[in-house]
Amino acid sequence: MPVRNKIKQFIDNKGITPYKFQKDTGIAPKTAYDLYNNPWQVPHVTVLNKICDSYEIQPGEILEWIRPSIDLENNENK
């Protein structure tokens, strides 16, 4: 199931830094930066809960499902 995170977009739209995101959520610094820099890294459920609780958001605001055929086409063009 191809799912990617939209954490970079979320953080950038809020006008905060990955550091502030990490502090707000209480997740490990490496996890925060990895999620910010790698959209294909899907947060563990405990991390997802911390993010959603901290910002009072639904998981769909930071995760999106990608149709497998689109994913394959995008990777072939890279």
TrEMBL record:
Tell me which Pfam families the record gives.
HTH_26
Cross-referenced InterPro entries: Cro/C1-type_HTH, Lambda_DNA-bd_dom_sf
Superkingdom as given in the UniProt entry: Bacteria
Q: Which residues form the HTH cro/C1-type domain?
A: 6-66
The record's annotation in Gene3D superfamilies points to:
lambda repressor-like DNA-binding domains
Q: Name the chain's protein.
A: Helix-turn-helix transcriptional regulator
